[in-house]
Amino acid sequence: MTTTLSATDAEATPPPRRSTRRISWDILRVFAVFAVVVEHITHQSQINHPELGGYLFSLPLQFGASTMLVISAFFVCVTIGRHRWLWNRIARLVPAYLVAVVATYAVSRIAVTVFNGYAYADGSWLFGVPVSGTPTPYPWYLPTGHDLVGNLLMVQAWAPSFHWIDAAYWTLPVQIVAFAIAAFLFPRKWLNTRNAPVWLWSLVIVPVVLRFTVRGDDAPQWVKSVFDGLALHRVHLFGVGIAVWLWSTGRLRGWHLGVYIAAALVAQDAHAYFSDTPSTIAFGVVLLLVCAAAGGPDWDILLVRRLAPAITWLAGISFGVYLVHQELGFILARALLDVGAPPFERFAASFAMAVVLGWLLTKFVERPMHRLLTQSQAGKAGRSPASPVPSPRPISQASTVGAGPPTSGESLAAASSQSR
């Protein structure tokens, strides 16, 4: 039977919504994540494992992860007013993280057993304690079940007894804490146009003061645990993201944003005891691009338009790429080194592995688990989710770029779900 659409029905059918997705944010997301990947392959790998040195080039500038946190904070401001916002974030981030932790742990146990020539009395390579090994000038750390529990609970930074299964995971606990605080503050409207400068500047000034007065190298362990566990040396990055959003929506003057970013950069360098100023400078340059994306036109030029499908795809799997690229990349590089692979092949293989595994983690864990958890949560509330299919958009990207013009006395995030 053929069904026809009457003129009345056609008039009543709303036109398809025009996508408000901006390619500029996808470009920044891809740039930030793959800057981390390249830096870890070519620079960090030989710090953690000296035998992995000798690549054709080295990228020592560490700015990618900081950029990711700034972008994440920006889109918290854009999206926080949406229904079940915090649960949606957790459902998107945590399952993929947990799977990545377990997989990295298992692969690390196998690889380190081989690299160090370990043997186990009870044959338990997964959790056992080695009783013998082969002497090597560069032994690898064998993660333990204790480390696995600590990483699954995201408490690695709170106690020195936990070893990071993958050091790249430091951003996850930081983001989860920041999201929870944002969700707590938002309905109370504590962050409004009037007191925003106080909040923003406290995120820069207070941690620096604590760093040099309370949290020294000789501080009690509980002080170090609280400071490091809350990542107080990183909270200025969320302040920068909020400040950029305020500026992009007309709530913060340009000169104020410039002074704030400069102060945040000084704070970042101070937290590292001014030992990596080149990375801070590089991060400052990238922040100019973030401001251009937030306050300027979309970067939808001809060349970018042609590359848009690839850029959008890479942005969509960027979280997965970030979760699997470092420790698993080091292991692959070492395995290839042991069979005589030259530096270029080790670099290309590690880079390709990050993309492939990131795509698999996104496709088979992140998106389906996000869909499952958000649908089940919506079902408990007696309603259907707005969309049964999760967006390919990365977790830090919203469908809009900013909010409408500010209104008198409103909360800073109250209009965050409106497009400009």
Automatic annotation (TrEMBL):
Keyword list, A-Z:
Membrane, Transmembrane, Transmembrane helix
Protein name per UniProt? Acyltransferase 3 domain-containing protein
Q: Which one of the record's GO molecular function terms can you name?
A: acyltransferase activity, transferring groups other than amino-acyl groups
Does Membrane count among this protein's keywords?
yes
Q: Which organism is it from?
A: Kibdelosporangium phytohabitans
The portions of this protein that span the membrane are: 23-41, 61-81, 93-121, 167-186, 198-214, 226-247, 254-274, 280-299, 311-335, 347-365
Instruction: Kindly give the InterPro entries that the UniProt entry links to this protein.
Output: Acyl_transf_3_dom (IPR002656), Acyltransferase_3 (IPR050879)
Q: Report the residue ranges that make up the Acyltransferase domain in this protein.
A: 23-362
